[in-house]
Every structure is written in C-alpha cells, then in structure tokens.
Amino acid sequence: MASLLQTARFATTAAKLAQLPRGGVPEIAFVGRSNAGKSSAINALCQRRRLAFASKTPGRTQALNCFALGPERAPRPVAMIVDTPGYGFASAPLAVKRGWDQLAGRYLQLRQALYAVVLVLDVRRGLTDLDRALLRWMQPDVPILALLTKSDKLGRAQQRQALDAVEAELRAARLPNPVSLLAFSSTSGLGVEQARAWLEAIVAEAGAAVAEGEPAPEPETLADIDRVRSANPP
Ligand SMILES: Nc1nc2c(ncn2[C@@H]2O[C@H](COP(=O)(O)OP(=O)(O)OP(=O)(O)O)[C@@H](O)[C@H]2O)c(=O)[nH]1
Ligand SMILES: [Mg+2]
Question: What pLDDT does 219 receive?
C-alpha cells in the first residue's frame, strides 16, 4: 500500500491568502530561506522528482503551492502540504521580495488550517535572523519540525556541530511550540524516513482532532528533540 506521502498530488496554487482552499483540511507548511531546499524536501518526502518545483535559481517558488494527501477518490484530502516562497532572497526587486515575504508570513500568522510547520534550514547556515524572526511570530500551538537539510554537503563532525548549535539555540529560545530537529538531505535520503514518520503522526493527530471537532492535545514542548535526535545521530 502506498504511504500517505506517496499520494501527494498538486491541488492548487495561491498568490493571495483569499485563494487558498476552504474547508479546514489540515495544512503542513514548508517554510525557510530562499534556496534552503524546501521544494526538494517535499519531493524527497513524497518520493516524487518534480512534484514541487526545485531550482538552482533562488526565488523559484513564488506562490503558496498546495499538494493534497490521502485517497484520491475520497471526498476531501486528509491533509495538504503547502510549499511556500522562501524569504531573504537578496537580489529580488524589493517590491517582489515584500510580496513573497508577506504572503508566506501572513499565511503563517493567520491561516487557521495551518496544523504544523516544517522549517527548512541549510545546514551550512543554521538559524539566520530571518528564521529567528519567523519563529518568534508563529502561532504558538503549531508544532515545528526543523530540518537541517543539505547535510550531504558536510562531514559527520560538522553535521553534529551544526545540529548541536541549532538545538542549543532552539532550547534557549524557549518557544511555546513543540519543536523537533533532524539532520536531513534530499539528495542522500538522510532523515527522510524520520521526517516522514513525524509528518504521518501529525496528520493522524490532525485527523483525530478534526473527527472530534476539537484541537489535539499538545505534545510536550521540546521533548521531541531528544526523540528525533536519538533516532538520527549525525
Ligand atoms: N546537495 C544538496 N542539494 C540540495 C538539497 N536540497 C536542495 N538542494 C539544491 O538546492 C537548490 C535549491 O533547492 P530548492 O528545493 O529549489 O529550494 P527552495 O527552498 O524550494 O527554494 P525557493 O523556492 O527559491 O525558496 C537546488 O539546486 C537543489 O538541487 C540537498 O539535500 N542536498
Ligand atoms: Mg521552492
């Protein structure tokens, strides 16, 4: 049987929040700096080469692209994956840049259907000021999976250093959100299985909450870091 993520198919693209689907299907958004590897991570997780558009040119994703999960014949998807435009693309014209940042930023702050966030970080840069800003104004009850992607570009010792630095900073930040952290590579497949398990658990939890008409119980803040890290030593 196909895994839930293998059922991903393009659903819709939204250049404005008002164009997003209605109906309250839980959404999991992939966010992060421009060129960090968001679209590639979605493709690796869904085992598809070109579901989300990935490119060497930063600024490739320019709208909110939604991918539906769940049996195609069901009346509605079980959940949606949302690929967002990256922030911090230095050479984009200012007006374009503001438009993208506002779209992804407003989506994260306002979207009721947002159920979880995958924060994609280039392992060689770690957390940047823009990521820190984003973490501070995210909705507090939304769980976050931070993926340190492109880990194939570093040796084991450097991977561990990067993971330790991001983990220490996330702990010190004392975010209200439950946070998990994982070394990842869309190219080598490192962390892909663990990330899939995280996503599938989140979707199951969201489904249970929707069925009962109430929010799912919150997991303990930061406890997940230990769980995911022990499954994924660099
Ligand atoms: N070596 C390596 N390269 C990667 C990895 N993930 C992404 N890349 C490369 O990084 C570049 C950017 O990847 P994208 O997935 O398009 O990045 P994005 O975050 O979606 O970028 P925007 O949509 O522009 O914000 C591409 O050239 C990818 O092939 C990875 O895990 N390892
Ligand atoms: Mg992209």
Answer: 41
The predicted-structure confidence for 185-234, as pLDDT tens digits, reads as follows 999 999 999 999 999 999 998 877 766 665 544 444 444 554 455 555 54
Contacts of 204 (CB under 8 A, 6+ apart): none
pLDDT digits (tens, 9 = 90+) for 32-53: 998 999 999 999 999 998 898 8
Q: Look up residue 207 and give its two tokens.
A: 């489904």
User: Given ligand 1 and candidates 81, 84, 186, which is best to mutate, with the most ligand atoms within 8 Å of its CB?
Assistant: 186
Residue 85: name the closest of 66, 110, 103 by CA: 103
Tell me, in angstroms, the distance from the centre of ligand 1 to residue 182's CA. 17
Domain edges within the chain? 4-231
Domain 4-231 in this protein, CATH class: alpha beta
Of the candidates 104, 139, 127, 148, the residue with the CA atom closest to the CA atom of residue 218: 139
Phi and psi for 198 in degrees, rounded to 5?
-60, -50
